[in-house]
Amino acid sequence: MASLAIARDSGYADRLRAYQIVLDGERIGEIRDGEIKEFSIPSGKHTLSLKIDWCGSENVGFVMDSAEKLAFQVKSNLRGLRLFLSLWYVLFARRSYLRLERTSSQT
């Protein structure tokens, strides 16, 4: 089976709350501040997103080979002065509240 690793950056916003990990529309776990989680997933086409309440990240699509290892990093967009824009993110940019980025690929 393929391996999917997700690392959560440590930050002030949401420090005490967990993000829900959603793979192909189903919740597969949660990740807390500064954690790294690894999941075994079947090869094929997948969609990954993270959520917190009604906000979250954009969906990221990817294809996994059977022996592949992919890594992603998630962090809140509420950093620095953007922290003052939290109401705007919650009301108008819910899919941009979290930033999910692919960080590496190993075979």
List keywords for this structure.
single chain, 107 residues, mainly beta, Immunoglobulin-like, four-stranded mixed sheet, 1 helix
Order of helices and strands: EEEEEEEEHE
- Describe the global form: elongated
Q: Please count the helical segments.
A: 1
Helical fraction equals under 10%
Detail the poorly predicted runs: none
- Mean of the pLDDT scores? 89
* CATH topology (fold) name: Immunoglobulin-like
Rounded to an integer, what's the Rg over CA atoms? Answer: 14 Å
Q: Report how far apart the termini are.
A: 12 Å
Number of domains: 1
**Category by helix and strand content:** mainly beta
Query: The biggest beta sheet, please?
Result: 5 strands, antiparallel
CATH structural class: Mainly Beta
Q: What portion of residues belong to β-strands?
A: over 45%
**Care to count the β-strands?**
9
- CATH architecture term: Sandwich
Give your account of this protein's structure.
The chain is mainly β and 107 residues long. It has one domain: Sandwich (Immunoglobulin-like), CATH 2.60.40. 7% of the residues lie in helices and 53% in strands. The chain has 1 helix and 9 strands; from the N terminus they run ββββββββαβ. It has one helix at residues 86-92, and strands at 2-8, 19-23, 26-31, 36-41, 44-52, 55-56, 60-64, 69-76, 98-106. The strands form 2 sheets. Strands 2, 3, 5, 6 and 7 form a 5-stranded antiparallel sheet that branches. It has a 4-stranded mixed sheet with strand order 4-1-8-9, with no helix packed on it. A hairpin with a 2-residue loop joins strand 5 (44-52) and strand 6. The longest helix has 7 residues, at 86-92. The N and C termini lie close together (12 Å).
